[in-house]
Amino acid sequence: MAPHLTITSFSFRYPGAARPALSELSVDFPAGRCTVVMGPTGAGKSTLLQALAGVLGVHHRQAAAAGRIVIGQKTYEGLPRSILFPDVALFLQDPSVQISGLRETVEDEVRFALDNLGVPDAQARERVRSQLDALGLGALSQRVPAQLSGGELQRVALAGVLVSRPSVLLLDEPLNSLDAPAQARLLRILASLKGSTTIVLADYSVDAAIRIADHIIVLSEGSACFQGTPAEFVRRAAEFSTLLPASDLETVRSLLRTSQSARRFAGHLLEAR
Fold first, then answer.
1. Is 243 in contact with 44 (CB distance < 8 Å)?
2. Per the count of CB atoms within 10 A, which of 13, 15, 40, 242 is most buried?
């Protein structure tokens, strides 16, 4: 079951840093929905995802952290101090980082996590085949991962994460290196996971947020300056002119000007998803 996530009065400072990466942050991530976390470089997006995944607590044990993280029925005071995979999975922008390099075929690479988790052989084979088919990778199952295109490799890396069936999927700017068709494919894949998985996608693109999000959070200097629905975000887009790409915000303003109202425009966008 997809869990609800809550962060309350959470602060984190990297050792030696002049200011906190996250400061008194209180945000919610609705269960089974997609939350897009937006904001400029340095706003704290990646730090937030790493905190939720347990990565931050493992790699920065001496760092100062305060506040509370709640993931479903589990509560963490400060940082989780262990990697929360496979329940919580973190998917990074560079797919090559998440490819083990130890397996000779796509099928074996996707199976890597299941072998480490001790999943029985027959069950592992079935789950891998099902996941490859779901991501359109069935025809590539015997290919060498290193010989794939960037978009194909990203889907293989994503399959390697999803095959473990996480209840929370965190994605750190996965769209940046993809062309438009590959971005659209990834957004369709993520949309298909809604309901069974709570998705948190960190990105700076307004376009991506509007296309996939059920809930939007905007960060600035480690704090949330907005959280709400895509319709609310569209109505207040001008407030974020210094935080988000000017081209994206101009697109929103242009569409708003040609719509009868912000409400009608937001409804159209939601239906288009």
1. no
2. 13
Q: Helices in 54-170 by DSSP H: which ranges?
A: 55-59, 106-117, 121-134, 150-162
DSSP category for residue 155: H
Q: 15, exposed or middle or buried, with CB in 10 Å at 0-12, 13-18, 19+?
A: exposed
Q: Are 32 and 191 in contact (CB under 8 A)?
A: no
Distance CA 212, CA 70 (A): 24
| 119 torsion bin: left (phi>0), alpha (psi -120 to 50), beta (else) | beta
Q: Collapsing DSSP states into helix, strand and coil, what is residue 32?
A: coil
Does the structure show a pLDDT above 70 at 113?
yes
pTM score, whole prediction: 0.89
Angle at 270 between CA 268 and CA 273, to 5 degrees: 110
**Which secondary structure element, helix H or strand E, spans residue 231, and what is its range?**
helix 230-235
Scanning the structure block, which residue is given the tokens 């010989």? 147
